[in-house]
User: Fold these one by one.
Assistant:
Number 1:
Amino acid sequence: MDCLFCKIVAGEIPSEKIFENDKVFGFKDISPMAPIHVLFVHKEHTANISELSETQSGQLQDVFKGITQWAQEQNLDEGGFRIVTNQGVDAGQTVFHTHFHVLAGKKLGRFG
Ligand code: 5GP
Ligand code: ZN
C-alpha cells in the first residue's frame, strides 16, 4: 500500500520518533504548528476516523493510551495539550492514514 505513514511506521521513510509500542507510533510533525507538535498513528492502517470507528474501534483506545502515557512522561498534564484529527477535504486532511495531532508547549488559540 502506498501510504506515507505506513512507510514511516515501517522505517522506510525517516522520522523523528517520540513514542513506540507494539501498536502505536508517534513522531514529530515535519511542519510544526506549535512548539510541540507530534503525530500519533496506529500501526494498522485505516484511512480516517470513520473507517477506524467502524472496523477497528479498539485502535482508538490504543492510540489514546499511547498519547496520554507519552504526555505524562513529558509532564504535559499540568500545562495541557490538544488532540486534533482531521477527516476529509473541509478539515484539511492530507494524509489518509488516521492520525492524531498532539499540540502543546504554548497557550493555544481557539480554533474554528
Ligand atoms: P493532516 O493535514 O492530514 O491532518 O496532517 C498531516 C500532517 O502530516 C501535516 O501536519 C504534515 O505537516 C505532516 N506530514 C506530512 N508529510 C510528512 C512527513 O513526511 N513526515 C512527517 N514527520 N510529517 C509529515
Ligand atoms: Zn497507512
Number 2:
Amino acid sequence: MKFFIDTANLTEIKEAYDLGVLDGVTTNPSLMAKEGISGDEKVKNHYKAICDIVDGNVSAEVIATDFDEIVREGKELAKIDDKIVVKVPMIKEGIKAIKYFSSEGIRTNCTLVFSAGQAILAAKAGASYLSPFIGRLDDISFDGLDLIGQIVHIYQNYGFETEVLAASIRHTMHLVKCAELGADVVTCPLKVITGLLNHPLTDKGLAQFLADHAKANS
Ligand code: E4P
C-alpha cells in the first residue's frame, strides 16, 4: 500500500518524507489556497518545490472544466516535472481529457469520485489513479469505506489497471480499513500518518523498559 500526503504545506511534506514512508503527494485547489499560493507562476513554482522534496508522484489539479482547457492546463502542469500526475475532476469533459492524456502517456488522477459507476467510467477512460472521497461520503451518511470495497472488487473483476487512491481520509481507522479492503494508495493529512504510531501500551512499555534500565545501571 502506498502512502500519499494530502497537503500543499512544504513543512508537512518534508516531515512525512523524513519519516521514510512517503510515496507521493496529492493537492487540490483548496489546499493550494490554504497555503496562500495563487497565480500561474507561483503555483508552478510551488509544485516544483513539492516535487523536489519527494520521491514519487505529485498530483496537481486542473482548474479548467472544458476539454480544450483541461488538456492545455494539464500539459502545462505535466511539463513542470516528471513526478506530476494531472488531477482531473469526474465530469464529462474530464473523462474525455483523461482518455486523451492516457493516449499521450500523461498520468492522471480522477478526482471527486463518489460512486462505483464513476469509478468504472474513469477506469475505462484510462485514469492512472482514481480518488474516491471517503470522509465526504461519511459526512452525508453514506459509507465511504463500502465504496472503496466495491471499487476494488469491480477493478479486480476486470483487471483494470487504474489504482484506487482512497482520499478524504479523516482518521487512522479509515486508513487501516482501506488497507484491509485492498486500496492501492491512501492519501491523508500528516496527523493520520503519524497517528499510526500511537498506542498507550507502547508508551507504557517503553517507560517501564527505560526505568528498569536506569535502575539496573544506577
Ligand atoms: C484528494 O485528493 C483530496 O485532496 C482530499 O483527500 C479531500 O479531502 P477532504 O474531504 O478532507 O477535503
